[in-house]
Amino acid sequence: MMRNHWLLFLILRHVPFVSGFSPVGTTVCTPCDVKTCSSRLYAYETEIGCATIAFASSHIAMSAIRNDLIDRIGDAAYQLNWVETGLKLPDIWPGDEAGQEIFPTKKIAGRQLYRIMYTIVSFSTLGTGFAYYLNALAEDPLTTLPNYEDVAIHYAIASLASGISLASLINPSPLSLVPVYEPYNNAKVDRHSAPIRRNDSRKLQAYGLTRITRHPLILPVVPWGFTTAIIMGGHVRDFLLFGILSLYALAGCAAQDLRVIRQEGSVGTVFNPEQSFLQDFFQQTSFIPFQAVLESRQSMDDIVKEVPWWALVVGTVVGYQIQQAFVSFLVENVGRAL
């Protein structure tokens, strides 16, 4: 099986081969090499599944042990003399309760470096799976999209799911990775300072979308993944990438809830929450959308008043445009047109 780095495949896709060879990912099977193409497709599908599962499992695992990781990374940063160096972010950069200093303590250094490591792992694993998916698209069976009318409902679901996730960026949950910023007006602060500051404590208040579900950012990935797989033809390779991402969203949200139940401390971007506040938020909200409403823990009146409807509408429109562009990119990858 091919186990080269995913960037190599993106480069090879544009290398002009000669003497009967085609760039990686652009080969079209002919009747005389069906067996070869079938074997290659199976190899790609295996790699897609392995890489996507690696992405999902590493995300959940790193979140489960992140307090220990943060402590160890912070200790390493301290040993490397990266802590308390006096370096600061520009005043215009929105800071938090720790101020503008870079790595002022071992704990903060550990948190920031953990985020960098988390991002690198995400891009390398999911990027690898996506690169293999691009190559698999060029193998039989080639992607033949149905008429738009036949997948209109799937486009609508995917667009609405994207709209909810985008709207949640201004209505975040403590269980997401989206920080909260608020106006910061202080006469004692230099006039060149940022007019906003980070305040993640506001994430511990059920509001708007979080009254519907405590996971408004990640949970919409579930319908988006399955509908995108169907739009792309519903082949094994499609469900191995997009279907596993949907399952990851469910498992990841459930794992976050479990950490709250066990009172393990930090979740999302809330690293040092008051456990009573976090438990209150957990008790007032629900994993399953609208379950808290059905159980009278939340009110539909509050939801109607607080949901950022303009952001939801704009997000859905933007989500539709992104979905079309994304599918077009994938189809053009194998020389097809919508």
Automatic annotation (TrEMBL):
Ranges of residues in domain NnrU: 108-308
Transmembrane among keywords: yes
Membrane topology listed for this record: Multi-pass membrane protein
Alphabetical UniProt keywords: Membrane, Signal, Transmembrane, Transmembrane helix
Any one cellular-component term (Gene Ontology): membrane
Major localisation: membrane
Signal peptide: 1-20
Compartment(s): Membrane
Transmembrane listed as a keyword: yes
Protein name in UniProt: NnrU domain-containing protein
Organism name: Fistulifera solaris (Oleaginous diatom)
